[in-house]
Specification:
377 residues; alpha/beta; Rossmann fold; GMP Synthetase, Chain A, domain 3; 24% helix; globular
């Protein structure tokens, strides 16, 4: 019987070896986020019915549980659902192989590459570096976490490619690499030519659109409701929990939940998550647009915009701002005036909250719900 085997280890050579052992045994891997506290790890293991666990101390049975793993399942990722309860995204060996193939067509000859994996393998962005390198048979170096000094040193000593998020990219000299894939949060406005921006989801096995163009073999479309649809061999097989609805329709299109557009040159522009759209006074307001207007203020280090339910406006725009210095203070009117210089005034925040930092995921995406919870206990 095929088993779901948890890997409770930091990214390393041992992690890669454990993954290969799991696959050679015909089992399915379940990488566990190493930043989670012990209680949350244990809850994930329980909720997903993990049958064996691999740690630095070896591989051990947990319990005699019913397996939901089928013969071709390769990996289960956790991703947050609308209720906050993690969903399990199942990718098969077929979708991992397809991912390796379409990315190889983008790069060309992969045999001489030396990839660095430094993002959490519990996320598709970090895991994809590992799985593609194994499929390509190229050199792979895996480190427990991103460290700017270590990453630069590895690049000076043979590593040619890596995958990063915007925050990490800003801490290194990208010219040390032949190529960098950039995913996660919205990229900075200017990038060096060796950096490729990517768009994708856990359900698509990571990036399927590079520099706004769909990879070979991947189809993208926009629905009547402006939702981005993706079709191709890299798509997830199913959600691990049997009762969850399938996001892939009868024609094979994955409904991403992201809104966007495609221009006449078939280039994709992503507006944002449909669930993050703020409707205030009947106007549609995208958080990232307001964030871009605020972050160019000299006294702003970081910002995140959310919509909070409001009796008068339906939702009100709230900006959480990390100032450059503690002495940088401005009134709400001043912040609204700054935004109104480049955007319609209805998009300006109706409340500003000064915070020490913006909570972000491992891929650099702002955790908007965590900020909403501050104001909506």
């Amino acid at each position: 019987m095929n088993k779901l085997v948890g890997i409770d280890m930091a990214l390393s050579t041992d992690f890669v070896s454990a993954l290969q052992d799991i696959w050679h045994a015909g089992d399915c891997a379940f990488p566990i986020d190493q930043r989670l506290p012990h209680a949350q790890k244990a809850q994930l293991v329980e909720d997903f019915g993990v049958q064996e666990l691999v740690t630095a101390n070896g591989r051990s049975d947990i319990a005699n549980r019913e397996s939901l793993v089928t013969e071709n399942d390769a990996v289960v990722f956790t991703t947050s659902g609308s209720s906050g309860k993690p969903k399990g995204v199942v990718h098969t060996h077929d979708s991992l192989r397809a991912n390796a193939n379409v990315v190889a067509q983008y790069f060309g000859d992969t045999s001489t590459m030396h990839w660095l994996a430094c993002l959490p393998p519990s996320h598709v962005g970090g895991f994809g570096v590992v799985s593609r390198a194994l499929h390509w048979g190229c050199k792979l170096t895996a480190i427990a976490q991103f460290d700017a000094e270590q990453v630069e040193d590895l690049a000076r000593n043979g590593v040619t490619h890596t995958s990063l998020v915007a925050t990490a990219l800003g801490r290194i000299n990208p010219a040390l690499f032949e190529g960098i894939l950039l995913g996660g949060a919205k990229p900075p406005p200017t990038l060096p030519p060796n950096v490729t921006t990517t768009y994708g989801l856990t359900e698509t096995m990571g990036g399927v659109v590079y520099n706004r163009n769909a990879l070979t073999g991947i189809e993208i479309s926009i629905s009547a409701g402006q939702e981005i649809l993706v079709r191709g061999p890299v798509l997830m097989n199913r959600y691990y929990q049997p009762l969850l609805s399938d996001p892939i329709d009868s024609e094979g299109w994955l409904h991403t939940g992201d809104l966007g557009s495609i221009n006449t040159e078939n280039q994709l522009s992503v507006v944002g998550r449909r669930s993050e759209l703020i409707i205030s006074g009947g106007e549609n307001i995208w958080p990232e647009v307001v964030e871009a207007a605020i972050v160019n203020h000299p006294d702003v280090n970081d910002v995140c915009v959310v919509g909070i339910d409001d009796q008068e406006w339906g939702q009100k725009v709230v900006a959480f701002i990390v100032p450059t210095t503690t002495s940088a203070t401005h009134s709400l009117t001043e912040w609204r005036d700054h935004v109104a210089e480049s955007l319609p005034r209805f998009m300006a925040p109706r409340q500003v909250v000064i915070v020490n930092s913006i909570p972000r995921s491992a891929l650099g995406k702002p955790q908007r719900q965590a900020l909403k919870d501050i104001l909506t206990p």
